[in-house]
Design goal:
The two termini are 34 Å apart. Helix 2 packs antiparallel against helix 3 and helix 3 packs across helix 4. A four-stranded mixed sheet has the order 2-1-3-4, with helices on one face. With 160 residues, the protein is α+β, with helices and mostly antiparallel strands. It has two domains: 61 residues, Orthogonal Bundle (Arc Repressor Mutant, subunit A), CATH 1.10.10; 78 residues, Glutaredoxin. It is elongated, with a radius of gyration of 17 Å. It contains seven helices and four strands, in the order H-H-H-H-E-H-H-E-E-E-H. The longest helix is centred in the first third of the chain and has 12 residues. 44% of the residues lie in helices and 11% in strands.
């Protein structure tokens, strides 16, 4: 069953987003960002169906967006997200060591799976657009460049 979307506390923000686009369905990506933030950093099948109904599109359309774009979580995720760039420039400049350090520090068994305590999620991400400043990571949406494993450990320790 779809959830009633948007909930009252998101209605004004959703209407403001939809008003920016020529058709409702074009607002899908920012609406999904808003929904993910509201629903504990992931979009359940029920929320997915509610968003689809709100935008006037099929559930499969929303599912396609959620599975195509790596920034959306379609299963429970950690409260804090660590994105490690895996493209060539970052990899050549130490991203493999950053990924290993992130997994070890957060307790995540592998990229894409949350830590047992639900605190972290480490993700492999395609280009973060910071190639000239590699290696790059995002921690909770904030970019960090020229990152070392030691610097990453400090960033993760600062997450509450």
């Amino acid at each position: 069953m779809p959830v009633e979307f948007p909930p009252p506390e998101l209605r004004a923000a959703c209407e403001e987003i939809v008003a920016r686009y020529p058709v409702r369905s074009a607002a899908a990506l920012p609406i999904l960002h808003l929904a993910q933030r509201h629903y504990d950093n992931w979009i359940s099948p029920e929320v997915e169906a509610g968003v689809a109904r709100y935008l006037g599109v099929g559930d499969a359309h929303v599912r396609g967006l959620l599975t195509f774009y790596a920034m959306y979580n379609h299963r429970p995720a950690g409260r804090h997200e660590v994105w490690v760039c895996r493209t060539l420039t970052c990899w050549l400049r130490g991203a493999a060591a950053l990924k290993a350090a992130a997994l070890a520090r957060t307790g995540c068994a592998r990229a894409g799976e949350p830590s047992a305590d639900g605190r972290f999620l480490v993700k492999d991400m395609e280009c973060l657009g910071l190639c000239e400043l590699a290696p790059a990571v995002f921690v909770d949406g904030t970019p960090h460049t020229h990152v070392t494993p030691e610097a990453l450990a400090r960033l993760l320790d600062a997450c509450e």
